[in-house]
Each structure stands twice: as C-alpha cells, then as structure tokens.
Amino acid sequence: MVYPDNAVDKLGFTDIKTLIKTKCLSQPGRDLVAKIQPQTRFDQIDRFLRQAHEFKQLLTNDTPLPVDHLYPIRPLAEKVRVAGSFLSAEELYSLLLSLKTVFAIIGYFNERAGQYPNLEALFEHLPIEKGIVSAIERVVDAKGNVKTSASPALAEITANIAKAEQEARKRIDQVFRAAQQAGWTADGNLTIRDGRLCIPLLAEHKRKVKGWIHDESATGQTVYIEPEEVFHLNNKVRDLEFDKRREVIRILTELTDELRPHIPLLLDYHNLLSKVDFVRAKALFALDIEGEMPELHKDTSISLHNARHPLLLLNFKGTQQTVVPLNVDINAQQRIIVVSGPNAGGKSVCMKTIGLLQLMVQSGLLIPADTTSKIGIFRQLFADIGDDQSIESDLSTYSAHLSKMKHFTEHADAKTLILIDEFGTGTDPLFGGPIAEAVLEVLNGKGVRGVVTTHYSNLKVFASNAAGLENASMLFDNVAMRPMYILQTGKPGSSYAFEIAEKIGLAPAVLQAARQKIGAQQKRVDTLLVDLERDKKAVYEAKAAIAQKERQLAKLKEENEKLQAYLDENKRTIIHKAREEARDIIRNANKLVENTIAGIKESQAEKEKTKALRKQLDEEQKRHAITTGQQQAKPKQNQSDEVAINVDDWVKIIGTGNEAQVISVSKNNLVLAMGELRTVQKRTNVVRIDKKNKQTRSRQAHQGRVTDEVASFRPEVDVRGMRTEAAINQIEKYLDRAVMMGFPSLKIVHGKGDGILRKFIRDYLRKYGEVARIEDEHPDRGGEGITYAYLE
User: Fold this and answer.
1) Average pLDDT, integer, range 570-595
2) Where is composition skewed (Polar residues) in this entry (predicted)?
3) Could you point out which of 67, 79, 538, 638 has its C-alpha 20 to 30 Å from the C-alpha of 762?
4) CATH number (domain holding residue 399)
C-alpha cells in the first residue's frame, strides 16, 4: 500500500510503533505492535478504532483491568503438544498465573456486559475452563514448587528424605563434638564441600577419623572429611532425592498429558492476552497524545479539525511550546492542495501530519484531532519526501525524484493519496518547474488526492487555474518576520526570500543586485503574493477577534439565561411561601374571631369580659402584622431599651417561638443555629433569653458540629512537600478520625521522589495497631507515590 517502503519511516510511523511497544507488558503484545500496518477494509479499521476508543474509556473512567500476569502461553502449549514431554514446575506456575489473568479479564467484561461491545468481541464464546487451573493447583503450590501432597509416593519419599537427613545430621554432630573434645578440629563449624556436609580437621589428625577427604584449605593445614558412617547416610539421602526427582517427573508428565487435549483452548487464551495487551498499549498511547476517534468514511476524503503532529506534541510536552493545530479539507472539489510559503514555515510538517494521521487511522490508532474530523480510506499512499540519492543505484537526487514520479504517474488512481515535498526541486528550475507541472497535471487527471509543497511560481499559477487543485499557504508575520504555522487555503504564499535574507543580515548591495537580476514580472508576482499574505493575515486576525467576541457573547447569554431561570424559580418559591403564610394567618385569624365571638356570647356581653377579649384580639392582630411585615410603621426601641446580642447568646424568634443560638453577628443581621439548621434573622425579629438549659443546648450544638465533621471528612491526606515529622502528625490526625468514624481505609498521597518519606510513613503505619495492611496504588493511578492503609 505504501510506496516507497521507507515512506513509513520518513512520515514517523515507525517511531509511533516504537512508542506503542513501550506500553506493552508482554512480548506477544510487542510482536503484534510490530505487525501494525495500514488496512483497507472499512469494517476492520472501524473495529480496531472502536476497540482502542473503548479501552481508552475504560482506562479513564472505570476500575483498572486485572492484567498483572501476562506470561506467553503459546510456547508452553507448543511444548505440551510434543508427546512424552512435560512442563517444569516453573512453567506450570507461569501458565497458572496467565490462566487466572485470562479468567479475571473475562469476568471483568462479563460484569460489564454490553458496556464495551468491541472489546467483548475479543473473547466472544471463549469458555472458562477451570479444570485446567484445578489440575495445576493440585500439583503446584503458591510459590511455584511441586506440592509434597501431589502423590502418596512423593509424600512418602519426602518424609524419608527428611528422616534420613535428620539422622545424618545427628550422627555428624556426634562425630564433630567428639573430634572437638579430642582437639582434632580446626577453627570453624561444619561446612559443605562438593555438596556434602564435612568436618574441618587439622591435617595432622586426618587419619584419626575414618571417612572421605573432599577438600583441603589453601595452606594445606585443614582438611574437610565426611565421616564414614555419615557417608552411607548421605548416599541414602541422595538415592532418595533421585527417587523424588523421578516421581516429580512422573507427576509433571502425567499433568502435561492431562493438559494436552486443551491445546487449542490454551492457544485461544494466549491470543486473548496478546490482543488485550496490544489494545491496552494503543489506548495508553492515545492518552499520551490526547488521541480521539474520528469519523470514518468509505470515500477518499480527509477533513482534519485541530489536528496536531503526535511526535511533535510529545516533544513539546513539559515545555512552554505548543503545537499549532492544523485544519485542512481534501475532497472531490479540492483534491490536491498545493502548499507554498517561506522556508521553515511548516509546509513539510503540515504535509507529514496529514500523511501520518492517515496511516494511523487506517492502522486502527486514535489520532490527536477533534472527534468531528472525518477520515476516508485509501488503497495506496505514495510519498516523495527528502533526498533518496543512491550511490549503489547510480541515482542523483533529481533522478531519485523522477523515479518516484514515474511510479506515481503509472500506478496512482482515485484511491491514492500522494504526498510530495518540494515538488520539482533538484534540477534547473527552468526545466524542473515545467516537468513538475506536467506530472501534477497527469496526477490530477487520475483523480488522486494529496498534498504538494513547492516554491515554484508556475505550479501556483497552474493550481489557481486547474479544477481539483487548490492553492494554500502557511501564514507568515511579515512584520516580525516569523512563521505562524497556520495553513490557509485559497491563495498561494510568497517564499519571502528577500525579506528573510535581509533579516539574516545579507549585505544590501548583494540584495539589490539580486533584485535587479530577477525579471520585472516575477517582482510584481512576488510583491502581489506578499500583499495578499498581509491581507490574509489581517483577515485571519479579524476573524479570530470576531470569534472570540462571539464566544464571550454566547457565554454572557448563557449566564443571563441561567440567572433569569434562577430568578423565576425564586419568584415562584417566594410567592408560594407568601400564599401559604397568608392562608395560615387567615385560618388563625378566623379561629381567633370565632373564639372571641363565642367568648362574648358565653359571658352574655359582660362589659369587662368583652373588653378583655377585644384586647386579646388586638394584640394577636398586632403580632401577625409584625410577623408578616404588614404593619405600616414599626416603633423603634429606645436606645436605652435595646439589649446587646452577642455570639453564643440564646434568642427566641418572634412569631415562631423557636429558640436558637447566635453563631455570627453582622450589623442588623444574626446567623442563628437551631441544631443542624442555620437561619438568618433581623435583630428586631428576635428576643434575647436567659442561658437556661445551657448544657443541653451545648450538647446539641456539639452533636451538630460532629455531624458536620463526619459529612465533610474525606479519608485522604496529601503530605507531598512536608517534612517527615509534619507529615506523620498530619497522618496521625487523619488516621484517628478515620478509625473513629469507621472508614475502611485511608489514602495517603506522598509522591515518589527518593522514597524516604514513603519509608518513614510505612514504618509508622506498621506500628499503628488499627492498620491491618498496606498497599500501593495501581501503577496507572500513581503506583508507589500513593499508599493505602486498610483499617481493622
């Protein structure tokens, strides 16, 4: 699909694959990355893209996927395939861990059925054969050794070995003590020589102990003897060890035979682990480059919005530099973009960005561009980038370019994307320009899509007159004399040769002589291009300013709509509350009037009784008027009658009779606490009362504060940058609260650094009686920089 073969290197696609390899956890995953190449089937590309997108969503929003052990299963399965072979205990242990990882992955996605459909397709209809795990666990322990209980014979042999070793050790200890008492031994204890336990004897006493000399010291003064009676016991141990080895081999062979029918399933498990590791690596790389999934189309069109070169983006991370986004459209109307402009203005980066992102999408990789970007599918990608001169092939620079142009014109079609950098260079411009124009005409006639960069004026003129070709230029600030790295389509750009030469400091006489040597027509064309570039820059800046003002206007409009909605809602709430209060007042007033009339009737209009009832009615009416704010004029208290109200004083709210404690005083407003509730009242709406039942109220207030603390407490403490003592004190406070409030764990963020703070914190936690265990955070979310303390 890609011509020539080194085009993938020049576009940077090989570097992309290398970076993805570093994200893999297993060699099979890295092998799959090495096989990445552009595809041409729509359904295959779409599936690869969706798998990477779903895994990126999983890494960002879900709990980590259990991929702790990804040992290759295929080599073990191939070894099992050979009849009579057996897997070692270490190989079986690796297989066991990988199978447990497989089952954990399948279980993970089964719990989220339907949430990641394209990832679920990786193991669709793949069964969980727990019998394999049970068979291995019957033989291999948690440390990867063969269990003593794997067979009755092995258990018996192991017991006999222990017994024989104990007897041999007991006997050699007796001989050693006797030799010591006789003064025959050299300095030192029992030692191992040739795998046998020996006694160090002085050379002059070596004939006094019957046995076999296994070694002597460098000076010859000490010999190492294995006593005769111990020798026979050690031989017995060795014979038993041989028996044990034969029994272990028999058990492993029997287990391997039991696994042989499951070879196809084991290979499927291997493929699952490899693909999961592969897709995970692609998703992790997408997170690094801020990759998104574009819209995939079956036609041959490209529409990139805010696209950035991924390698450039990674190089600029951690620096003050930013990548200027690229916006470009290649479609049926503008099939080939002819990009011109100054040197070092970003023409080649623009073209390489388009080519690299196209290769990435057709290889199933997410790209650093907006999700509104649209990418079509090409059957071929032809690129002519850089200098391919070859001494071996007797090719000059221009000959190499012409060889590629020959291939382009013969094999390109409407499903081909071409990328040509510095079109026509390498020979006399008087001839190179027309040849390049003729080649471009042929390619345009074939309906190819692509990008061409050039400085030739004839190609700019040709592009402005030919259907399907579109001029474009990289914007250049001709005042500051620096490139802006922004692609603008519609007009060609100037090379700014004289302006750049003048800025560099080329002598004015040389520049004047050069201006006189170029034709008057070329001068006018170049001047016109510079003027167009200036006008284009001004239009771009005006459009940017208008867009910014439109965004500000839209933001203000949104805020105004939210404020209006808030006011309308508050208005409805206030009206509803006022109506409810009015109904309560009317109901209470009616009840009061009825009671007054009834009282007058009962007293048979007795003068004094009637007078008292009327006075009660007037007082009640006045109280309601004060509460609802309906009175016209509220009598002011005399300065001498005012009672000062301070924080912690207790007051009664007029109208409701509720008692509350003052927690804040601000001018004429009081913030009151009634248990866990808070309210604001005017100073004139409350009456200070005595501090009766102070203990009860204090207890209620304390309970409210404790409730607030429980509600606001988070079992997480950040001690990065603190000294050790301060960090320990802070952690101790949080631990006490977490234990008191019944939290199961405490998250401690201490950072990685040199690991000193982490060590002191963990030493402290191990001494804390309520801490059951300590664990690191998952590597994807901080790893050793975060410690979890699980509480009993």
Assistant:
1) 73
2) 627-641
3) 67
4) 3.40.50.300
